[in-house]
Write a structure and sequence with these properties.
The structure holds two protein chains of two kinds. Chain A contains 17 helices and 22 strands. By secondary structure, chain A is an alpha/beta fold. In chain A, helix 6 links the parallel strand 7 and strand 8. Chain B has 17 helices and no strands. In chain B, helix 2 crosses helix 4. The chains are: A alpha/beta, B mainly alpha.
Chain lengths: 509, 422
């Protein structure tokens, strides 16, 4: 299928989300659309998939102009979409998820499980996507769930073009590699792919053509051979330093000591298994590891949201193991949660209220149980300026902010109070290059001020850019502590349990 | 007055926006929360009218020959609807008959105020129970237990009301506080259970309602509480020193509205202050919106649930105190609590869990109740319950109102009130 967009424009009131977008996806081609958060990528996809109606411009499929009244029309026309957030029914089987909305029946509304299974197997064989139709989706690893989504998208009446919206955001490195291979083989089989991303490496690895969008306009058409720096500067409109300038660390006394931490989950699995780790003041320790090896639980245990079964958490020479999160926060523990929307911000609260979420009981923000709105607003004005939070007003709800700016709110909240230890979990996940650069430089400043920083990240690039020491976590234990100059291959091997080849074995839960 | 306020020239808006009337007109046809509430009320009265017509045998008869003589059906329908609503109005707000008699000098001013007094009397417990449900709503909790908390508050106030003797200045506050504390203790139970065991507050508070209702039946029968002079199931009266004084007693003995109304307004004001100005209220709202982020910020979620439910229970307990020390000061029966606790849920919904809205909704429901009771037997008493139910149905389903009236979608989408955690 040849998909062509001509002068596609979408206006919301006076705001132009997409302005005169021209783009052509040739048959069997992987076309990457690169852009920061808020550049207009999602709006573009929603128009393409019939969810939004374009203000002007047209969509042509194989030279014929088409108009979609809804996703149903788009599917009938041969488009398939894999959303960033999966649209799967957890307790349903793979086959039931794939047939969702177009169930196989024996007529008269009686389901035909056999036909549903056969349909899944047919598609999965045709494209080489191994799937067990009977498996329950919520029990599958995220990478396999995504495969279900892809098979679902391919199971349309005649899917010839696949839209993948930020498909790697939730995947582990191994799963990403697998997905990129799948995309390649789909393209070779003749399926066109529109690949939305802001990860430069993946785009370089897989795309045939790269269209860069900034502020709703196409700013560049690049070949995949273009350098990372070239793509990044097209995306943000200026030169971006992908490496972080930082001086030699000056580690001081240990500030955060984790001692034999063990945590057993509801299924009796040791999520943390006698984990030891020490972070000194004035250094950034990067915790590398494939996601799901205990990073989340470690961070939550350090904050005190989870009680460990054994082991100790020592903050500033004080055993904090039995203390409440509030106590630890007050003692100077900063925390940037990995799941921003769930744990970081209250979207219904204003930006100003969010900025004092863990300090609202302290002076000057409240006195004797009464909130001082003026003090909170003053603080907000300061933070908004200092951290370059893009909001119309501190009194706007946090929901009106982009992801990157919400993250800046969290960072501003943690950095605007005295702290001794900072746990930053995936601090730049899903945010754009500009905000990433900003947050990285603040983390280094933080280190230089003598704070002990524990950086938990699934992006090795981020670990390399920031860490003074790298600890590798695997199955709830630290399996290695190495210097920042250690080659990728060595860390890669440690991340999968120290096996000889970094690709060793599928990771099953 | 001759004093002229120094009329400052209004600051010219930086940009000339659309004229006020245009914006106002658009507001009226938009499905925002205020207009949905207003339209819900009007729609409810319209549907109520249809039901009045259908349920009246005489009027139904005139519709059978509608095409021969439509004027019969129309005038009969108009007659039954207008007289019913007029009777409601006379029972709830102002009786014109009494007004005439007042003008002629045969009725006192107190008689003119009587319908309003009745409205406010019925509204008083609803203000408290509405606050009890609304406050919990803001923490993401669905407090179905206001009925049980009210019963416990009633008993607490009653025990102190006749059990001790003291001058009114001590006795009355002590009895009121006892009611609040009893309600708070009972209300905190589902909160504590949720915090410690994860038991859903809806389930536990429903069960606690039954426990409270049956406990009341048993308690009234005990020698300690049972009336010494009457044989039926009724408690001792509270001492005069513990009874809530009538606000308008000087205008006539039939004006039952008492000091509890003032306490109700004060409670609403307090809840407003609590939610918008206090750290406790900040925590309630934070936990209600996103308990995960609140926990990550160091808030103790379980404690917030327990204290919020306790505070909510205190308000329901005060509703009980307002009955036991007010209109039922002569003795509490198993019927005294009526459905005030459950009606509090609908009041909180109609008031959108905001203190001002709750007071307004409580007064409206009080008016419907007072009107319906006084309009009997000419108008079926069920019409009041029916109207309440339809109003809440529409409030809970703004999309339906929007669809029926073809309203525009407001910016930010439709607003529905919901308790999380289901």
């Amino acid at each position: 299928m040849r998909l062509e967009l001509r002068g596609l424009t979408k206006k919301f009131g006076s705001f132009t989300a997409d302005d005169d977008i021209d783009l052509t996806v040739e048959p069997g081609q992987i076309h990457a659309v690169l852009g920061e958060n808020g550049a207009g990528k999602s709006t573009l996809m929603n128009m393409l998939y019939g969810i939004l109606k374009p203000t002007s411009g047209e969509i042509l499929i194989d030279g014929e102009p088409v108009e979609f009244g809804g996703p149903g029309d788009a599917i009938d026309a041969g488009l398939g979409m894999v959303h960033q957030h999966f649209k799967l029914v957890g307790p349903f089987s793979v086959a039931d998820n794939v047939q969702l909305g177009r169930e196989h029946t024996r007529g008269a509304g009686v389901l035909s499980p056999r036909a549903a299974r056969a349909a899944v197997l047919e598609v999965s064989e045709q494209y080489g996507l191994a799937l067990d139709p009977g498996a329950v989706v919520e029990d599958l690893p995220v990478g396999v769930q995504q495969r279900v989504e892809i098979v679902k998208a391919l199971s349309g009446p005649k899917t010839e073009l696949l839209i993948l919206d930020e498909p790697t955001a939730v995947l582990t490195p191994a799963e990403i590699r697998e997905l990129l291979a799948i995309m390649r083989s789909l393209a070779e089989a003749g399926t066109s792919i529109l690949f939305i991303s802001h990860k430069l490496k993946e785009v370089q690895a897989v795309a045939d053509t790269v269209t860069v969008i900034r502020r709703g306009r196409v700013v560049a058409e690049l070949p995949p051979t273009a350098s990372e720096a070239e793509m990044a500067s097209a995306m943000v409109g200026r030169e971006i330093s992908l490496t972080v300038d930082k001086a030699e660390p000056e580690p001081a006394e240990p500030r955060l000591e984790i001692d034999g931490l063990t945590l057993v989950d509801d299924h009796g699995v040791k999520v943390l298994d006698g984990l030891d780790l020490t972070v000194r003041g004035g250094e950034i320790v990067g915790l590398a590891g494939v996601e799901g090896n205990g990073q989340t639980e470690l961070a939550r245990t350090v904050l005190g949201l989870i009680k460990p079964d054994s082991g100790r958490v020592v903050i500033d020479d004080r055993d904090a193991t039995g203390e409440s999160p509030a106590r630890r926060i007050r003692a100077g523990l900063g925390y940037i949660p990995e799941d921003r929307a769930r744990d970081g911000v209250i979207t219904e609260f204003t930006v100003a209220e969010n900025l004092v979420l863990n300090q609202y009981r302290d002076e000057p923000f409240s006195r004797r149980g009464m909130v001082d709105a003026a003090a909170i607003r003053r603080q907000a004005a300061e933070s908004v300026a200092e951290f370059d939070i893009r909001t119309q007003s501190p009194d706007d709800p946090a929901a009106s902010l982009s992801g990157g700016n919400q993250q800046k709110v969290i960072v501003a909240r943690e950095f605007s109070r005295p702290r001794r230890v900072l746990v930053a979990a995936q601090p730049t996940r899903g945010i754009d290059v500009g905000a990433t650069e900003f947050i990285h430089s603040r983390l280094v400043t933080e280190r230089d001020n003598g704070t002990a920083v524990l950086l938990i990240s699934s992006e090795l690039d981020e670990i390399y850019a920031l860490a003074d020491r790298i600890a590798v976590i695997y199955n709830g234990r630290i399996v290695g502590e190495v210097g920042p100059d250690t080659p990728r291959e060595v860390i890669g091997r440690l991340m999968v349990g120290g096996e000889a080849d970094a690709d060793g074995g599928d990771r099953e839960r | 007055m001759n004093v002229k306020t120094a009329a400052e020239p209004p600051e010219a808006p930086p940009e000339r926006r659309e004229p006020f009337m245009t914006l106002f007109g658009r507001y009226l046809i938009e499905a925002n929360s205020v207009m949905v509430t207003i339209w819900s009320l009007l729609l409810a009265f319209a549907i109520g009218a249809v039901l009045l017509i259908v349920s009246d045998e005489g009027v139904r008869g005139t519709w059978s020959y509608f095409f021969d003589r439509p004027s019969d059906a129309l005038s009969a329908s108009w007659e039954v609807v207008s007289s019913a609503y007029f009777a409601l109005f006379e029972g709830a707000v102002l009786n014109f008959n009494t007004l005439d008699r007042f003008a002629a000098g045969t009725a006192g001013f107190g008689d003119v105020l009587r319908p309003l007094s009745e409205t406010l009397t019925y509204a008083t417990p609803l203000i408290f129970t509405g606050l009890a449900v609304g406050l919990a709503f803001r923490a993401g909790l669905f407090n179905i237990g206001a009925q049980g908390q009210l019963i416990m508050g009633m008993l607490g106030a009653l025990v102190i009301g006749f059990g001790i003797s003291a001058p009114a200045i001590v006795h009355l506050p002590a009895a009121v506080i006892a009611g609040g504390l009893a309600g708070a203790a009972f209300g905190a139970v589902p909160g504590v259970l949720k915090a410690t065991t994860g038991a859903h507050e809806v389930i536990s508070s429903i069960m606690l309602n039954n426990i409270a209702a049956l406990f009341l039946v048993w308690a009234i029968g005990t020698g300690f509480l049972h009336s010494e002079t009457r044989s039926e199931l009724v408690t001792k009266p509270v001492d005069d020193t513990a009874a809530l004084p009538h606000l308008l007693g000087f205008l006539g003995g039939s004006l039952r509205v008492n000091l509890a109304l003032v306490l109700g307004f004060a409670a609403a004001l307090f809840v407003w202050w609590l939610l918008s100005k206090s750290t406790f209220g900040y925590r309630i709202r934070a936990v209600g919106f996103n308990s995960h982020a609140s926990a990550t910020a160091g808030m103790n979620i379980g404690r917030t649930y327990a204290t919020t439910m306790g505070t909510a229970g205190a308000f329901a307990g005060l509703a009980g105190a307002s009955l036991a020390l007010g209109i039922n000061a002569g003795g509490v029966t198993t019927n005294t609590a009526l459905e005030y606790g459950f009606d509090g849920i609908t009041v909180a919904l109609l008031g959108r869990a905001k203190p001002g809205g709750i007071v307004a909704a409580a007064v409206l429901f009080g008016a419907l109740k007072a009107g319906a009771l006084s309009a009997q037997p000419g108008v079926p008493v069920d019409i009041s319950i029916l109207l309440q139910a339809i109003i809440v149905l529409f409030i809970a389903a703004p999309a339906m109102v929007k669809a029926i009236l073809r309203l525009r979608t407001p910016r930010g989408g439709l607003v529905t009130l919901e308790a999380k955690g289901w």
